[in-house]
Specification:
By secondary structure, this protein is of the alpha+beta class. It has 2 domains: 40 residues; 132 residues, no CATH class. It contains 4 helices and 7 strands, in the order αααββαβββββ. Strands 1, 2, 3, 4, 5, 6 and 7 form a 7-stranded antiparallel β-sheet that branches. A hairpin with a 4-residue loop joins strand 5 and strand 6. The longest helix has 23 residues. The chain is elongated and about 50 Å long.
């Protein structure tokens, strides 16, 4: 029996039985279940604005390079604020993603910069996204994938190889915010 038919049958039973107290109880239980489901979905988004997400992404990238040696210049390579898809599908949510290139250092230092970013983030208590997210340090194209707690920003550092024979490359840091509600637009007059 379909869910809709079962609900209609139950409602008809309660209306016919003259049990207003039971109908009220069923209504309250339904309302509580709906509220709990809505609250669970709401926890999947962050209470952020685009500006706050961008500032936090910059902070996370700065934390990674603060103690690096040799000291690279953090150059924003790409920025986007776009729609966000959650496990519940596409919603009225946005997400900030920022890519930074670490410049001003020899290409031979790129893999070591990735490791230093990893070490800085581990020292801050950030977590690996999975058991396989820590870089394969025997691979010149090493990459790490982590996330912050409790605000759940995703971060990665990777060596983009420019010379496979030497392992030289360019180090990049990418920071992605959690999903946050799109700003509401006021109607135009």
């Amino acid at each position: 029996m379909g869910h809709g038919r079962a609900m209609a049958r139950a409602q008809a039973h309660f209306e016919d039985s003259g049990r207003p107290l039971l109908r009220s109880a069923v209504a309250w239980v339904t309302l509580l279940a709906l509220t709990a489901t809505t609250a669970a979905c709401a926890r999947k988004t962050a209470d952020l604005t685009e500006q706050q997400a961008r500032m936090r992404a910059e902070e996370i990238a700065q934390q990674a390079v603060a103690g690096m040696s040799p000291k690279p210049a953090l150059q924003q390579h790409h920025y986007s604020s776009s729609g966000c898809t959650t496990e519940f599908g596409t919603a009225e949510l946005d997400q900030v993603s920022v890519d930074y290139r670490l410049e001003g250092v020899a290409p031979s230092a790129a893999r070591d910069l990735v490791r230093q970013a990893r070490d800085a983030w581990v020292a801050l208590g950030y977590k690996f996204q999975s058991k396989d997210s820590d870089g394969d340090w025997s691979d010149p194209a090493a990459a790490v994938f982590m996330h912050t707690r409790p605000d759940d920003f995703s971060l990665s550092a990777q060596n983009s190889i420019t010379d496979r024979s030497t392992g030289d490359g360019i180090a990049y840091i990418t920071v992605r915010s959690p999903c946050y509600p799109k700003p509401t637009e006021s109607p135009s007059p």
